[in-house]
Specification:
heterodimer, A: about 325 residues, alpha+beta, BirA Bifunctional Protein, domain 2, eight-stranded mixed β-sheet, three-stranded antiparallel β-sheet, 9 helices, about 20% strand, B: about 190 residues, mainly beta, OB fold (Dihydrolipoamide Acetyltransferase, E2P), 3 domains, five-stranded antiparallel β-sheet, globular
Chain lengths: ~325, ~190
């Protein structure tokens, strides 16, 4: 850890708060513990327990994102909100860009779409940049759609490869080790992570837009296309944030909950899902949200690419120093 | 078979029926996606490096390999020549894909050789090795323009930056992954 980076982190956090408060966003402070979560099959979570000798016990889970608490507040108050808080993701690798406990910056803008969020995020970068911020982390953001990136770096037409077998075949044709029975999403990720992501330009931040609708998430579909209104921001080879024009159709959210809950059954740490949760979308304002890995944001703005330089206690070190109590998987 | 999550640097995978040794591995979690291992693997027959991404839960074919201690003898125009310490059998490892190994091969020293289906495919270089300095310029005390180190050449041609007090003919311990000087070895 470098104290210079901690000082920068503190400065950037102060700038971030001031940035959103100036624009009239309400800063929320929601619990880290939740009795149920939004089902996301790509994530594993941490389970814990409330234990009161008189009242009883209750299963609780640490939030992998404050979204589960923030969206009901947006539905209730119809206001733009932001929050900086600790989030927790289990089972992921630990290293240069991953720590199971990390800081998330989430901001939701009422009445906005993902394009407004992109402009807002560029403004945020401008407001928080310091003298050491490298060119690769300075706005404006370069923009590219997922289909353009596939065409550019693989020669494949992703729009016409919406069928599982066709995409698996295309991946195999590129010499990749795609299992014959791979799902569309896994085959997509294998091609993306092997051929596309490492080739993305890194001379300036890149907003990669229009993600496949076949990747389940709570972003709105772009009607008449196989895409969702979602972008991810890359800077210096790091994935910094994920933005949606939020899905606000309760039916679509309910269907997504059902599909993801079914997939969640095979997860290592199952959690409770509130079947009533999608009802908040019966009166949900049009809105766009961004979830940004705040630690990575600080790394980018200071020209760094390794969390162990920023975090006073990186989890990799905690693991290493406590190997003796590590139980076999 | 080996699970994606178990692949590590040094694992040997069978890709399109060719043995590939993993030279780099990182775990990646795409936004809203499962965990994958992204590996760079070198084809042991032609030295070409390929990138593959494997879901940590999926299994891929690995190559069953053996490690045998062999003595390095010499190199001819196209091969490194080793001898099996027990059977005295000779093995010829062609240069392509192993060119950089020449800086770490000392005649008469024993190395672990990786065999796949009876074919010698890779040379394991020890993590730390002792080298003799064969060329070193003399620096005068107080010469700090180039910092506190100077480059020297070792008997294999390896160039290492060492502290100014190291002289020609002395032995030094070197980290072979980073080519960094570790310490002077008293002979």
């Amino acid at each position: 850890m470098e104290t210079r980076l901690l000082e920068e982190r503190s400065r950037i956090l102060t700038e971030t708060r001031a940035f959103f408060l100036r624009r009239g966003y309400l800063e929320t402070d929601t619990p880290a513990l939740a009795p149920s979560l939004i089902p996301e099959s790509c994530l594993e979570v941490f389970r814990t327990e409330y234990d009161n000798p008189f009242l009883g016990r209750m299963d609780l889970w640490l939030v992998p994102s404050p979204e589960v608490w923030m969206k009901p507040l947006i539905a209730r108050y119809k206001r733009s909100v932001f929050q900086v808080c600790k989030c927790f993701r289990n089972s992921e690798s630990v290293g240069r860009l991953h720590n199971p406990e990390f800081t998330m910056l989430e901001y939701y803008t009422v009445g906005a779409d993902s394009g407004t969020s992109r402009e807002l995020t560029e403004e945020l970068f401008r407001a928080c940049a310091g003298p050491d911020t490298p060119a690769w982390a300075r706005p404006p953001f370069r923009r590219m759609t997922m289909a353009e990136a596939f065409r550019e770096y693989t020669g494949l037409d992703l729009e016409s490869l919406q069928d599982r077998e066709a995409l698996v075949e295309a991946g195999l044709g590129k010499g990749l080790l795609v299992p014959r029975e791979a799902s569309w999403e896994d085959a997509f990720n294998q091609v993306f992570l092997t051929l596309v992501e490492p080739s993305l330009p890194q001379d300036s931040p890149l907003a990669l837009e229009r993600y496949p609708a076949q990747i389940e998430c709570l972003a709105a579909d772009i009607p008449g296309t196989p895409w969702k209104d979602r972008w991810e921001l890359y800077a210096g080879g790091m994935e910094l944030c994920n933005c949606y024009t939020e899905a606000s159709d309760p039916g679509a959210v309910r269907a997504s909950f059902e599909r993801e809950s079914a997939r969640k059954k095979s997860s290592r740490v199952p959690h409770r899902v509130d079947p009533g949760y999608p009802e908040i979308f019966t009166d949900f304002p049009p809105c766009s949200g961004v979830a940004m890995g705040f630690d990575r944001f600080v790394l980018a703005l200071t020209g760094e690419r390794d969390l162990s330089r920023l975090l006073p206690y990186p989890f990799a070190r905690i693991l290493e120093e406590n190997k003796g109590v590590l139980r076999t998987p | 078979m080996i699970r994606g999550g178990d692949i590590a640097k040094g694992s040997v995978l069978l890709i399109n029926s060719h043995p590939h040794i993993v030279v780099d591995r990182e775990f990646v979690n795409p936004g809203k996606g499962a965990a994958f291992a992204r590996v760079k693997a070198k084809n042991m027959r032609n030295g070409n490096v390929v990138t593959q991404t494997i879901k940590t839960q999926d299994e891929v074919e690995d190559a069953q390999v053996d490690l045998i201690d062999c003595q390095y003898q010499y190199s001819d125009a196209e091969h490194f020549v080793f001898m099996n310490n027990e059977s005295f059998e000779q093995y010829f490892i062609p240069f392509p894909g192993h060119e950089d190994k020449k800086f770490y091969l000392q005649e008469g020293e024993t190395y672990s050789i990786l065999f796949y289906e009876g074919e010698a495919i890779d040379i394991k270089i020890p993590y730390k090795m002792v080298f003799t300095v064969t060329e070193s310029e003399n620096y005068v005390r107080g010469d700090t323009v180039s910092g506190a180190t100077k480059p020297v050449v070792c008997e294999t041609g390896l160039v290492v930056r060492v502290p100014l007090f190291i002289k020609q003919g002395e032995k030094i311990l070197v980290n072979t992954e980073t080519n960094e000087y570790q310490e002077r070895v008293n002979s």
